[in-house]
Structures are given as C-alpha cells and as structure tokens.
C-alpha cells in the first residue's frame, strides 16, 4: 500500500493528505461544536464582548480586539440567533448561564473558533512537511495537534486561543521556510513574518514571545549575505524597519476596525457601560457621539485607551493561591507534568455525568516533555562537552525551538508572579514541545540510519498511541456520559478529574 501511495504524483499525494487533515480537523473541532448548550469558563466573558461588536457599541476588553471581532463575525454570519433578543448579553462584561436569552444557540459564537482550530491543523501539517520533507510522515505527526484533547475542548468553545494558535503556527511555519533558504532574505520576507506575529499578538498579548525569532533569523541571514560590511547597517535598518512597520500596520488595521464598528455610546446605566465610559478619552467620546472620519490620530488615541484598560484590568487579576479551595490556577513549572486540569462544567442525570474537562492527551503531553529533556541533554553535550552531532541540520532546528521554548517558559514564569495562570496558558509551549518531538524523532532516526520503513513504522506506532489516548479521554473532552466507575478509569495514570 505504501508503495502504491508513493507512486502517485506529488500533487495528488499532497491533496490526499490535505483532505484527510481537513476531514479530521472538521470532526475533531467543528462537528457538534454547539454542545453543550451552556456557557463555560471564559465563554461567559467573550460572548458579551462579541455581542457588543455586533450591536456596534464602543467598548474595551481585557484582550486585544482581533479574536473577539472574529467571534462576532461567526455569530453574525450564522444568523443562528437573529430572532432572539440578546440585550442581556451587553449589560455586563460577564453573563451568568441562567441569564442567557431563551432559545440561544451557541453555534454562531463557537463557529469561528472551531473553524480556525480546524484550519490550524492544515498549517501544522505544512509545518511538519517543512521539517520532515515527507508527506506521509507529516500526516502521521499531525496527529499531535489534531488529537490533542486539551486543544479540542478549549478551541471549539467561545475562546480566543484557536485564533492565536492559527497565527502562531503560521508564523512558525514561515520562520522554518525562511530559515531553510540559502540566499539572503528580502525585507518583504521579514515584513510578512512580522504581520503574522502581529496578528497573533492582536489576539492575545503573550504571543509577543514570537518576536524573538527576528534577531535569530537576521543573525543567520547576515551570514548568507554577499553585501559589503559597510552596507550591512542599512540592510539591518531596512529589514528591522519593515518588520516593525508590518506589526504596526496590523495593529492599525485591527484598531481601525474596532473604532469603525463601535459607533454607539455605551449605556451609562449598565455595569459594562460604566466601565467603558470611565476609560474613554474625550477624543474617543467625541468621535462616538458626533461621528466623523477614522483618522490615524483617532485610532492611536483609541489604541491608547484600550491598552490602558487592559493594563488596569490585568492589575485586578488575583495571584495564584494554592491554599484557596477550588483554585483552578497552576504554577507554570507544573504545566510540563500536565498538572492541574480544569473542570469547565459537569452535568449529572440518571446515574451518568457529562464533563467538559480541560485535560490533555497524556501520551502526547509526556512525549513532549521527553523531547524537551532529550533536546536539553543533546545541546549540553554538544555545547559544553563538545560532543559532535550526527545531523547538523536537524540539530540546528532542535536548538532553535528549544531556545524558543526556554523564552516561553521564562516569560510565563515571570507572568506567574504577576497574576494567576492556568493550564491553557501552556498551549503555545505545548505546541513547541510537539515540534521538538518530531525533530528529536528525526534526529534519532538519522543517528541510527533507520530505513524508510522503520521511520514510517515508528511514526505509525506513535500516531496510533496518540489517537488511542485521545479516544480514551474523549468522553471528558466531548461532554459524553460516564458512570462514576468509568470516570475513575480516566484517573488511572494520574488524577485528571473529580468524578461525580
């Protein structure tokens, strides 16, 4: 069978892989995304934000506007709640489940997060193909993303992380493609990568860690240039300037849309309206009340107001308190061990309980941890003990992504001292560990000169283990009914859920 597939034209093989990834992405992230028909975790916040965009109300939120606007687009396009009075959604910045409008459908609000999650699977396949150079291996290793339970349960809800993940994977894929080039890079290449990073940041600020890719990329790029040293400063300024300009353009476009959509003054009688009015500058208020053109100066003023609100809101976020009963937060150092899963919701009836549990694919999670440990040992042996490496190309990628993982952890260890953090804050770090899994596997295969059949066979075994583990925890992911004894079986390796 493998020989038959290998005989197909390259374009046909690529299309087959893309179609299969798209189908798996649809069934894992999109199908049934309107269940459960209740809000959970941050959905209670983000639905109110999206509705304010739909109603055209000027407002501020704790996160940048892009993801929230995309959620609103899904709700608007779906028309699922077109005939329902949703006024209650904009009264406060949080809505209790029992105050949701009667007959409300979650299909529209969850539509765009689910679609972006599925589309990110296609980007992950492209990234895997760039790293392995083999379509079948890229398909098999795409299971790391497609069958990650924590991604599925969180991304198919009214959350922002699937948008951020989409742009992060796109940026990492572009980074790898640029790194592989032997000729000097153009300023347009830096600008394109900068735009992708800007889009990720405009969903959630912690994606700013991706900016570390630019000095690393330019350092490598500088060694491939044939320009005289005297011309290097101009080249550096051009590429740095294009990167910064691309990010600023993204910021400007996002906040221009935010400004243009919000043409109605917040209701001063509502809790949400009071918060927004307190943080609106006179320039912003004048625009909303009197109208006018969306000028760069106005957008800059609105952007300043928005970021001031974000800063004020984050100052009010509590810090981790491990002694607090029911504390869902966790320390970043515990994320590596899959510690502190979160119960988003549970519903019991007739001896069965349905859970919405933020719990990951344990096999993949610990495989990622093993890849981090192996990568660190490999780097220390080479850099400190001067041991040679057998595959310089793959080793270089291991160093790059291990360094990026280190930046991620240092950033979030710092953030953990400022506010409470949760397991889903590890999602970008988890993604990097999955990239390291593939790189370490490739390095070991090259080290031991594994044949093509052994490579494919080992990748198939890993994929089957990933899928099998996913199916084992799937009831906790998809709100499927379990008896208490069935639930307790999911705690066999470590404590995942408090069974009811």
Automatic annotation (TrEMBL):
Membrane topology summary: Multi-pass membrane protein
Nucleus among keywords: no
Subcellular locations according to the entry: Cell membrane; Endomembrane system
Keyword terms of this UniProt record: Cell membrane, Glycosyltransferase, Membrane, Transferase, Transmembrane, Transmembrane helix
Domain Protein O-mannosyl-transferase C-terminal four TM: 329-495
Listed transmembrane segments: 12-31, 111-129, 136-157, 163-179, 191-216, 236-257, 363-382, 394-415, 422-444, 456-476
Classification via InterPro entries: ArnT-like_N, PMT-like, PMT_4TMC
Entry keyword Transmembrane helix: yes
This enzyme's EC code(s): 2.4.1.-
Pathway: Protein modification; protein glycosylation
All residue ranges annotated as the ArnT-like N-terminal domain in the record: 21-217
Job of this protein: Protein O-mannosyltransferase that catalyzes the transfer of a single mannose residue from a polyprenol phospho-mannosyl lipidic donor to the hydroxyl group of selected serine and threonine residues in acceptor proteins.
PANTHER family: DOLICHYL-PHOSPHATE-MANNOSE--PROTEIN MANNOSYLTRANSFERASE
Family statement drawn from the similarity comment of this UniProt entry: Belongs to the glycosyltransferase 39 family.
Descriptive protein name: Polyprenol-phosphate-mannose--protein mannosyltransferase
Organism: Viridibacterium curvum
Classification of source organism: Bacteria, Pseudomonadati, Pseudomonadota, Betaproteobacteria, Rhodocyclales
